[in-house]
Amino acid sequence: MSERGERPTLEAVARLAGVSRATVSRVVNGSPKVAEPIRAAVRRAVEELGYIPNAAARSLVTQRTDSIALVLPESASRVFSDDPFFPSIIHGVSQELDAANKQLVLMMTNTVGGYERVERYTTARHVDGVLFASTHGVDPLPGQLHRLGVPVVVSGRPLGRSPVPYVDVDHIGGVRQAVRHLLDSGRSRIATIAGPQDMVAGIDRLAGYRAELQGSDRRSIVAVGDFTRESGATAMRQLLEDDPLLDAVFVASDLMAHGAITTLRELGRRIPDDVAVVGFDDFDISRFTDPPLTTVRQPILELGRELARQLLRVVAGEDVPSSVVLPTELVVRASA
Known about the structure:
The chain is of the alpha/beta class. The protein contains 13 helices and twelve strands. It folds into three domains: 10-62, Orthogonal Bundle (434 Repressor (Amino-terminal Domain)), CATH 1.10.260; 67-169 and 301-326, Response regulator (Rossmann fold, 3-Layer(aba) Sandwich); 171-298, Rossmann fold (3-Layer(aba) Sandwich), CATH 3.40.50. Helices cover 44% and strands 16% of the residues.
């Protein structure tokens, strides 16, 4: 700070560093076109004077806000439920953005009006890029923002044709491991509780189940839930009504698997003696179910981090792959 208590200016930093005002501006705004000795001199002058860049002016120069929007096309009751998926995605994204000194802006919407607000906000350049934590059906918004020049990356393979890059996990490969485990253990009537069929996770996990059963003498036995505990309980009751002799069930999420276990217990079925149960997620709570849940582990925290990494590369003008698919693995515990 100057002796008179005035806020240090760009010109004062330039004089102390022995460079031009334009050079100081380039260093402050992160330009790589300045030699390191000069950059070091400017940084020393900034520190000595206590110079604080004007954020608004910097934004005008760089056309950057240093903010990233994370859109959750879900209801608040879903995001703030006992499902750890979305909090884990937010955590992973936040970790990566914090490391890059970027601000996270959360936007929840599951209505037409909400989508319009997201479009207005993001196309007005209040943020440098947009992440989608999930999509339902053939969601037009990510592609629309992409066509308008807004950097976008989505979680989950978009349904339909889309130019938007995405990060996903190997749903089909993970489910095939799970069903193969049940087949190898001698289970003969293997059902599934699938996820919602307007989401790629629900679609691909059902496809993996059916693909692994092909070529065996087992028939598909399918009920559909919505990734909630309650829907898992209801779907399990429906499956047992359809086939009272089923002896295994692959469930497309851990929460639905917990609901299925509740129903099996209420109906006097022993796990895994009568019915083996396998989930998908490997949430922490699944280690403490009774019995501990065999499940397919997906790296949710890393999914959030990779989403943020890919978007930051797009914002920086770098080329990114059209898709990044993270591996899944079967974790065998006592339920199957």
